[in-house]
C-alpha cells in the first residue's frame, strides 16, 4: 500500500494514507486523485470505497473516505513526497508494524483487507446521482 509520513500537524511525523481536504466543487473521486498526485506524484484509478472513518483532533472533525486504488500505470516511478508530506513509499502489509501509524490506521487497513477478501465493498453514488463503475480488484 502507499503510505505517506505527515509533514504537518495533525499527526506530524506519523505515517498515514495519502489524502486531504476536498476543494469546493470537487467530487470525492476528483479529490482523491488530486491529493494522491499532489502528495506522492502517483497517478491512480479508484476502486471501491473500503472504509469511512471519523477522527477528532482538538476542534477539528475529520470524515475520511478510504478508497481502494490501483496504479494507473504499473511502470510508474516510485512515489515522491511533496506538499505537506515528508516521505512516501510502498509498504507491504507484513511491514506495517515497522511504521508509527496514525491512530487506528492499522486496524482500518486490516479490516479493509479482510473485507476485500470476503468480497465486501461499498459503492459510491457520485455527485450526479450515478453509480460509479469501479475497476475490478485483482
Automatic annotation (TrEMBL):
Name the UniProt key words of this record, in alphabetical order: Hydrolase
Nudix hydrolase domain: residues covered: 1-114
Q: Which domain of life is it from?
A: Bacteria
UniProt xrefs under Pfam families: NUDIX (PF00293)
Presence of the UniProt keyword Glycoprotein in the record: no
Q: Which GO terms describe its molecular function?
A: hydrolase activity
Entry-linked SUPFAM superfamilies: Nudix (SSF55811)
Q: What is this protein called?
A: ADP-ribose pyrophosphatase
